[in-house]
């Protein structure tokens, strides 16, 4: 007979279960085309692709707004935490609309929240978050958020 171990997570009430998020929760948007290779053998986009879309949505927004230089910038963001909740399938050849917002802005860290929506849908097919800690490119030690970056991030709250 196998031993049952207690869960390390607190029990969830039905009210605390994650639910799809509305578009109004997000501040910036990016359209992402799915690719044939994104689908898995079950006919929908594989879960690892969602994390790539999170990175794409956030970093493209920062690059477009002039506060992330991926080749020469002295400060870079390293992902230290990530999570995703799934509510409905996405599949090739759909277009995904990624909404982003800043949920928490610290001295050297940022929690981004990302909603992934089937094109035109009102509620997210998935949503999640990741935390960037901004570090010096060379030393990899945390540094204060540069003022220009902080200014852009404040517009995403």
Q: Can you put this structure into words, describing what you see?
A:
This protein has a 5-stranded antiparallel beta sheet with strand order 1-3-4-5-2. The chain has helices at residues 47-64, 147-155; strands spanning 28-33, 75-86, 95-105, 109-118, 126-136. It starts with 27 loop residues before the first strand and ends with a helix. The protein is globular. Helix content is 17%, strand content 32%. It has 2 helices and 5 strands; from the N terminus they run βαββββα. The protein is of the alpha+beta class.
Task: Summarize this entry quickly.
The protein is α+β, with helices and mostly antiparallel strands and 157 residues long. The protein is 17% helix and 32% strand. The chain contains two helices and five strands; from the N terminus they run E-H-E-E-E-E-H.
Biggest sheet strand order reads 1-3-4-5-2
Q: Radius of gyration from the CA trace? A: 17 Å
Average pLDDT reading: 92
Oligomerization status of the protein chains: single chain
Beta-strand content: 25-35%
By DSSP, the count of extended strands is: 5
Order of helices and strands: EHEEEEH
Low-confidence stretches: 1-9
Count of discrete alpha- or pi-helical segments spanning 4 or more residues:
2
Quickly give the structural class.
Answer: alpha+beta
Amino- and carboxy-terminal Cα gap: 51 Å
Anisotropy-based shape: globular
Query: Main β-sheet, in a few words?
Result: 5 strands, antiparallel
Helix content: 10-25%
Question: Helix and strand layout, with pairings?
Answer:
Elements: E1 28-33, H1 47-64, E2 75-86, E3 95-105, E4 109-118, E5 126-136, H2 147-155
Antiparallel strand pairs: 1-3, 2-5, 3-4, 4-5
